[in-house]
Design a protein that fits this description.
This protein folds into four domains: about 190 residues, Alpha-Beta Plaits (2-Layer Sandwich), CATH 3.30.70; about 130 residues; about 230 residues, no CATH class; about 55 residues. The longest helix is centred in the middle third of the chain and has 33 residues. About 45% of the residues lie in helices and about 15% in strands. Helix 1 runs antiparallel to helix 11. The strands form five sheets. Strands 14, 15, 16, 17, 18, 19, 20, 21 and 22 form a nine-stranded mixed β-sheet that branches. Strands 4-3-2-11-1-10 form a six-stranded parallel β-sheet, sandwiched between helices.
């Protein structure tokens, strides 16, 4: 029977991989697409979905409020706070007495203040003489000065806005605005300022202050890097009551940036990240203190702890990738639960510890969401792959292997390799003697029926021994043992199958002959060797098969049976792997196109010949091999008389009678 010649689609020595339907998109590309989609979706949601944004900010606030390291009180910034005690000295609380403010400013200048921020809005007149005095001080103070400013968006009436513009010189103005979350109203960033209508750009108070001190102010919002406190009961900045300023030692003020502003219970207090653990003074911070944190940060060149959009995206992508990896693993439920919780716990622990050690504020909520989404997606894709694998296995192998083996491979596809690889297999070929004449004598329907019955006999025999049927070609069959599932005993299986097929087919032949159909004997050939086995084909058609010289040898060994008069023939390569097999050496054959003799044996079932016959046969063959031709002729002649039906004895007797002197048989045709 001719060797099957499928189109080769790939090299022979590929690494074993799991089963993938060649018509399906490779899973790795689906996972990469999922990684990109999840990362993009979660990063977008982080900025536009309030729930996720709030959750992320909360995780950051908890770290800021609980893990911000202690720092010494700022050496260069002090707060002159307008407290309840300060206001008790005046007949009205608001606006703050402007003569008093003028005195405080003059005192600070006299004590050598480096710069002064007045975080109060001068948007309406008070007592005229006091207003005039304060205006004069603001215009003539020798110390760099910044005064809070506001636009119409702050709720000022046109008259208030006009008064503010008149009272505060343009070069002293700084917006007192705060950038707050829309959800929680928490201050998190430094307000950079803006231009009003077509006027000049006005920085925020922090930016204006650092400009007055010779630094560059930011033109975009900057995350506030809040300072840690020196201790639980100590504030980051030294604070004194404003009414005590004239009495303070000069050393407490000299070369300091002094911030004048309200420290009152219900006025100008703003929620900060510290509010997650403290709803009192630290959590809701006076505006002047918030500005103090911003000014300190800008003067020191400190960056906010947030990693920014690119850092958020990278962290989300890494966690999504980890989720895809873990979700791709097949594992028991409890192990899977641990595989989910442990990485998340480690990630959150690292996120907190990293910030405590002075590192950035990594996002936690969004990467966690990405991790869980990716795990679920990978689980779905892996389940999809498994379903594809099972469907592909069932479709591709249902005609090759037994139902039991098929179920086994479907339940555990990892045991199956269908990618082309080089592997040692045992190969089995069958052919029916005289089938061409039989097929020409039968009508198509009868031929189909008898052929289908015959093939079922072959299928039952091969499947019984765990073999894989590769191809039917007319009356011939090609089967392999040792693939797609590895079988260490593939040679023993193939040999046992060959003997059983010979018996099954003999019975089938007798049954068909009894029906009036002259179905002849079936010959079987077995060889063991290395082949390339796996899926081969083109883009349109893929077949699972084995190719290589060993396949060709196995097919030609089957054909030797008609010369030797045997039903089953095997090579020494198979026989040596089944050392306890009962067999006799038929001859050393040089196949056409080959130069090296191939030992061919006939495996014998237990009931075929007694040991006395086999000893006589071996003796006769040994005489022939040794060149003792007379002894060989005598021995084979005697065997022919006692066993005239034995084809192998008759074959050697005929060779000796024809004058053959070499035990090696050189085939002149395939």
């Amino acid at each position: 029977m001719p060797e099957p010649q499928p189109v080769v689609a790939g090299g022979p020595d590929r690494e074993r991989r799991s089963v993938i339907d060649p018509q399906q998109t490779p899973l790795i590309w689906l996972k990469l697409a999922a990684l990109f989609a999840i990362t993009a979706t979660v990063v977008t949601a982080l900025h536009f979905v309030p729930v996720l944004h709030t959750a992320e900010q909360w995780t950051a606030d908890v770290r800021v409020a609980t893990l911000l390291p202690y720092e010494p009180q700022h050496p260069d910034i002090v707060v002159a706070a307008i407290t309840e005690e300060t206001l008790e000295q005046f007949p009205y609380r608001s606006p703050v007495d402007r003569a008093f403010l003028a005195t405080v400013l003059e005192s600070l200048a006299a004590k050598g203040a480096r710069a002064i921020l007045v975080d109060l809005l001068f948007d309406q007149p008070t007592e005229q003489d006091k207003d005039v005095r304060l205006a004069s001080v603001l215009h003539n103070l020798s110390v760099p000065l910044v005064i809070s400013y506001a636009g119409a968006d702050a709720g000022l009436t046109p008259s208030q806005k006009a008064y503010l513009d008149t009272f505060v010189p343009p070069e002293l103005r700084g917006f007192a605005n705060m950038i707050k979350d829309t959800a929680g109203g928490t201050v998190r960033a430094i307000y950079p300022g803006r231009a009003i209508d077509t006027g000049p750009f006005i920085p925020g108070v922090a930016g204006r202050m650092v400009e007055r001190l010779g630094h560059t102010a930011p033109r975009e919002p900057v995350a506030i890097a809040f300072r840690g406190s020196p201790g639980a009961d100590t504030q980051p900045f030294a604070a004194y009551p404003a009414h005590a300023v004239p009495f303070l030692p000069e050393s407490w003020i000299k070369d300091k940036v002094v911030l004048i502003g309200a420290d009152l219970t219900l006025v100008d207090r703003h929620r900060t990240p510290f509010a997650v653990v403290d709803n009192d003074k630290t959590g809701y911070m006076p505006g002047v203190v918030v500005h103090g944190h911003a000014i300190a940060q800008l003067l020191e060149g400190r960056q906010g702890a947030a990693v920014g959009p690119w850092g958020d995206g990278l962290t989300v992508a890494v966690m999504a990738g980890l989720g895809l990896l873990i979700g791709s693993w097949t594992m028991p439920l409890l192990t899977r639960l641990a595989a989910l919780l442990l990485p998340l716990a480690v990630f959150w622990l690292c996120g907190f510890k990293l910030f405590e050690l002075g590192g950035p504020l990594l996002p936690l909520a969004a990467p966690t969401m990405a991790f869980l989404l990716a795990t679920g997606t990978a689980d779905f894709l892996t389940g999809r792959e498994e379903r594809v694998q099972k469907r592909f296995i069932q479709t591709a192998f249902s005609r090759y292997i037994s139902a039991e083996l098929l179920d086994e491979l479907i339940n555990d596809p990892s045991r199956l390799s269908i990618e082309a690889e080089r592997r040692e297999l045992s190969l089995l070929f069958t052919d029916v003697a005289g089938f061409t004449s039989l097929s020409e004598s039968l009508d198509a329907v009868t031929l189909s029926e008898v052929l289908n019955r015959y093939r079922q006999v072959l299928i039952d025999g091969v499947f019984h021994h765990g073999g894989t049927i590769i191809q039917f070609a007319g009356d011939g069959m090609f089967a392999i043992f040792g693939a797609p599932r590895a079988q260490p005993d593939h040679a023993r299986r193939a040999l046992a199958c060959a003997l059983e097929l010979a018996e099954r087919c003999r019975t089938f032949s007798e049954r068909e002959c009894a029906r009036g159909l002259p179905f002849d004997i079936t010959r079987v050939g077995v060889h063991t060797g290395e082949v390339n086995v796996g899926n081969f084909g083109s883009l349109d058609r893929v077949e699972y098969t084995a190719i290589g010289d060993a396949v060709n040898i196995a097919a030609r060994v089957e054909g030797l049976n008609k010369y030797f008069g045997t039903l089953v023939a095997m090579t020494a390569a198979t026989a040596t792997r089944v050392p306890d097999a009962r067999a006799r050496l038929v001859g050393e054959v040089v196949l056409k196109g080959k130069t090296t003799p191939l030992q061919v044996l006939e495996p014998l079932p237990p009931n075929r010949f007694d040991e006395g016959f086999l000893d006589r046969y071996r003796t006769a063959y040994d005489h022939f091999a040794a060149g003792d031709l007379d002894a060989a002729k005598t021995a084979f002649r005697a065997l022919s008389q006692d066993y005239p039906e034995d084809g192998c004895v008759g074959f050697h007797s005929a060779r000796l009678a024809a004058g053959e002197t070499d035990v090696v048989i050189r085939m002149k045709e395939k």
